[in-house]
Design a protein that fits this description.
heterodimer; A: alpha/beta; Rossmann fold; B: about 700 residues; alpha+beta; five-stranded mixed sheet; elongated
């Protein structure tokens, strides 16, 4: 199977010579096309730093990151923006929808900055909205929507450009459990029906249990990795809880 | 401690303060410069009449200063409101930590004071430097010799500036204290979190309001242009002005909603790049700024009209001077029965006898007579007079018309370099150059209006007035002289005898002393005359008045230049203040929103928009924001200037559109400068994300 993301011995240091913090300490893993991977870890374990490095928002101190065979640690300036625009889709904890635009326009913006024709935009947005069940909120502004709707609109914006990789940073962090469930169902739909590759960072075991594979990070290193491998979501959830218990610490706010 | 917080705050937010600071300094400097003109002109060598004009000018400028201080005061209060608003969260944190409202007010108080003191100091230093250039400009305008350049510091203007601005700053402090005392902690803390509510107005209502506004505006435009003849009374002017203000407000109220509707429906434009984002940015802002945009638009409109009007008035005065005063001097005597020989000799003798030796001073002496025949304007206009009175009841047509012999007029015309005419024995010509009267007279002449002088009927040779004049003046104000064949009058109808002449020397100082001598001589003649009339016949004294009067090119020039300088300075003063105020409000609004913008542009960057595209979006956003009020102001000005032209032409001044170019340069420099500055500052803020 084709490898979409390959992380090769990356390290990320913060601070100066006198007080050095290793946020990421030699992490390597791969994500294949069509996979749904969750990264779990306590706060401060380095999972958000990892995501920021992959999303090119932050730079690694050493190591390589390949997306679709391209080394993104060497990209600069507008090439970076272009890469982000064309290869990646983002979903943030706080939605990051533009409050002055309607849901439709928020989704359309991702396409219009790529120069897609207006007619095509219209078609693609309405089709995707239908699939994600947000057709009825398309004309609303963010302040008129619930958190779950906002996050599904944000997901639609992330997937509409057919990116190689969707990066989700605590997507359920600001949602209640019902909205979380609906969003994760949408993720599964994106993953299975639209063959989207999703890399999701979370500290919530319930959220992680929707993924195919969970990578645990502790103190900047990979601690464990478990696979769903045909088990039901409930069984997978229990497995995750086991690892979380093993990890100890504060990673125990499972729903 | 509080002082420390204040200083740190100012330093921290210096980038946001920069434009505010810059505007304050500019305001102080301009205020100082225009109030220091008085002292700057001390070193100029000018004669007493110029001095009086300058005195009048400084009096008016100090009156205007009061008005200007109101404008600046509002600007400062408005600006400080923005600056408080964007620091709500900071104040909220202070309050949560237990700091009292009084202490917060004190922090603001110290900040305002620091800013005030620094801006005053820098502004006055800048103003002092600028006012040295100002004296050069003044000297140039009045053709005065700068007897050695001296560096002048006007302590009077300095004190005045400090007092005026101190009052403004105290008001701001009071205002700040008031607004802090009304704040609620929960609002302060939540200020940043508030979601932008986008209220879309009903497009039908928008369209309706827009149509009404355009209708009102068109009517107002019509009133000041095509319908301007109805506005002969100035107090009717409030109607188009009021309509214009209301319509401007309504247009800004409705147009943003309308524009967004239109653009969202043009999908291929709306969904290209970040267009949708830019348009929405604009839309969300303009909705909350309808009132201030209206005020800014009107201020820009006033600036353009006043500047262009004043500059064209100045140009016109300068140009018409060489045209309307082609000779150096003119003396006229009212005809009185005792004098039988009414000719050049008599006037020359009279002048020489009273101290102005015409042989040493004058050359090209040309004499002429003017007659009155009892005909009034109502008579010479015939039927048209009735029409005129019915549409314009205030017009006065009871004045007696002036008449001249053809040979007299042709002599004068020869001296002045004007067109000379010939007549058949039953024809007359009207010589006029005052546009307002020319139009009225032409209507009568077109009808072939005949006049009767001495039982003989004359008909017009031409169907319109001929350009020309006899009295030298600063402007085209000859409202009509009837030229008839030489044998049309007898001596009993003689009204005025005059001479026009040039000085023998072209030396400026020599001419100046000749002017003064002539004025003194004429005064002496009149004094003698009124004395003799008083003693001889007290009953007649009322009807005689002054016997002689004189005009000199030098005197006319000084008055013209003085008037030109006066209006130019006032217009410049108001123009600069209005421009910096309106541009500063826009800039501050844009910059105070930069926190929200920073977040939004950050989101754009996250979803992968190029830096170039982001810069472009920001540029467009700010550009539209600045251009929007300017656009309507320019449209207003087109009609406003037409009206100004009309007024100028009724004052006998021709309009020159060259002044519009100067105004545009001025506008681009200040308004455009603020735009560029705002863009650069904004970009700095969103780049720091």
């Amino acid at each position: 199977m084709e490898t979409i993301l390959r992380i090769d011995n990356i390290e990320k240091y913060y601070g100066n010579r006198s007080s050095l913090t290793k946020a990421i300490d030699n992490i390597s893993f791969e994500v294949d096309k069509g996979e749904f991977v969750a990264i779990m870890g306590a706060s401060g374990s380095g999972k958000t730093t990892l995501l920021n490095c992959i999303s090119t928002i932050d730079r690694v101190t050493s190591g390589r990151i390949y997306v679709g065979g391209q080394d993104i640690t060497e990209l600069k300036g507008n090439k970076l923006n272009r890469f982000r625009r064309e290869q990646l889709g983002f979903i943030f904890q706080d939605f990051n929808l533009l409050d002055t635009l309607t849901a439709f326009e928020n989704i359309a913006l991702a396409l219009s900055i790529q120069g897609v024709h207006a007619k095509e935009i219209q078609k693609r947005v309405s089709q995707l909205a239908c699939e994600l069940g947000i057709s009825d909120v398309l004309d609303k502004y963010p302040y008129q929507m619930s958190g779950g709707q906002k996050q599904r609109v944000a997901s639609a914006r992330a997937i509409i450009t057919n990116p190689k990789l969707i990066l989700a940073d605590e997507p359920t962090g600001a949602l209640d459990s019902k909205a979380s469930r609906m969003l994760l169902e949408s993720f599964n739909y994106l993953n299975q029906e639209l063959e989207a590759t999703i890399l999701m960072v979370t500290h919530d075991a319930f959220t992680a249990s929707y993924a195919d594979r969970v990578i645990f990070i502790k103190d900047g290193k990979i601690f464990n990795e478990i696979l769903k491998c045909g088990s039901t979501r409930k069984e997978f959830f229990d497995k995750i809880i086991d690892v979380v218990t093993l990890l100890g610490g504060d990673l125990n706010n499972a729903v | 401690m509080l002082f420390k917080i204040s200083i740190k705050n100012i330093r921290k937010s210096f980038k946001d303060y920069a434009i505010y600071f810059f505007t304050l300094i500019l305001g102080v400097a301009v205020f100082y410069v225009f109030n220091a003109i008085d002292s700057q002109t001390v070193m100029l060598k000018v004669n007493s009449s110029v001095y009086e004009i300058i005195k009048l000018m400084t009096d008016i400028l100090s009156g205007v200063s009061v008005f200007v201080s109101f404008i600046l005061g509002f600007l400062i209060i408005y600006a400080s409101r923005f600056l408080i608003k964007r620091r709500n969260k900071e104040f909220g944190i202070y309050m949560i930590l237990g700091m009292g409202k009084r202490k917060i007010s004190l922090i603001l108080f110290i900040e305002t004071m620091l800013i005030g003191v620094i801006s005053l100091a820098v502004g006055i230093v800048l103003g002092t430097v600028a006012s040295q250039f100002m004296s050069v400009i003044v000297a140039n305008m009045f053709d005065a010799d700068m007897t050695g350049f001296r560096f002048i510091f006007s302590s009077e203007a300095c004190v005045k500036t400090i007092v005026y601005f101190a009052i403004m700053y105290v008001l701001v402090m009071l205002f700040n204290t008031f607004s802090i005392s009304k704040c609620r902690l929960i609002d302060l803390l939540n200020a940043g979190k508030k979601n932008e509510k986008v209220t879309m107005k009903n497009p039908l209502i928008c369209t309706f309001v827009f149509v009404i506004a355009v209708g009102l505006l068109s009517y107002a435009y019509w009133l000041v242009t095509a319908g301007a003849f109805k506005l002969n009374v100035m107090d009717k002017l409030w109607l188009p002005v009021g309509l214009g203000c209301v319509a401007t407000f309504l247009i800004f109220w409705s147009v943003s909603g309308l524009l967004i509707r239109i653009f969202t429906s043009i999908k291929s434009v709306y969904y290209r790049g970040v267009n949708s984002f830019v348009l929405r940015q604009f839309g969300s802002k303009i909705n909350t700024m309808v009132f201030s945009t209206t005020v800014i638009c009107l201020m820009l409109f006033i600036t353009i009209s006043v500047l262009a009007g004043a500059l064209s008035m100045k140009d016109s005065l300068k140009k018409s001077l060489s045209e309307c005063a082609p000779v150096d001097m003119q003396v006229r005597l009212k005809y009185s029965d005792e004098a039988d020989a009414s000719d050049a000799d008599r006037i020359c003798r009279l002048l020489t006898d009273n101290g102005f030796d015409t042989d040493t001073y004058l050359k090209d002496i040309t004499a002429y007579n003017m007659y009155r025949t009892g005909l009034t304007a109502a008579d010479t206009l015939g039927e048209y007079a009735d029409i005129l009175i019915s549409t314009n009841p205030l017009v006065d047509l009871s004045g007696q018309e002036l008449f001249m012999k053809l040979s007299d007029y042709n002599r004068v015309a020869g001296l002045y370099g004007l067109q000379q005419h010939s007549l058949n024995e039953d024809e007359y010509i009207v010589i006029a150059n005052y546009k307002y009267m020319v139009d009225i007279r032409n209507a009568a002449l077109k009808n072939g209006q005949t006049i009767v002088v001495g039982e003989k009927t004359y008909r017009p040779r031409y169907s319109e007035c001929m350009d020309g004049f006899v009295t030298i003046s600063a402007q085209r104000i000859n409202d009509g002289i009837f030229v008839l064949p030489d044998d049309a009058f007898d001596d009993s109808q003689l009204y005025i005898t005059g001479i026009s002449a040039n000085y023998k020397s072209s030396d400026k100082a020599w001419k100046n002393s000749a002017d003064n001598k002539l004025v003194d001589t004429v005064k002496l003649i009149n004094k003698k005359n009124s004395d003799s009339v008083d003693s001889d016949d007290s009953e007649a004294s009322g009807s005689v008045g002054s016997l002689a009067n004189c005009e000199t090119k030098g005197g006319i020039a000084q008055n013209g230049v003085g008037l030109g300088a006066l209006v130019t300075f006032i217009a410049l003063y108001l123009g600069i203040i209005f421009l910096i105020s309106s541009a500063a409000i826009l800039a501050l609004k844009e910059l105070s929103d930069s926190a929200d913008n920073k977040e939004r542009y950050g989101m754009l960057r996250k979803i992968g928009v190029d830096e170039r595209m982001i810069d472009m979006a920001l540029f467009r956003q700010i550009g539209i924001f600045f251009a929007f009020p300017l656009l309507l102001a320019v449209i207003h000005s087109i009609f406003g200037l037409k009206f100004v032209n009309l007024i100028l032409s009724t004052m006998g001044m021709s309009s020159m559109m060259a002044s519009v170019g100067t105004t545009a340069v001025f506008l681009v420099l200040i308004y455009g400068g603020y735009f560029v500055l705002t863009y650069i500052c904004s970009r700095g803020i969103i780049k720091n994300g």
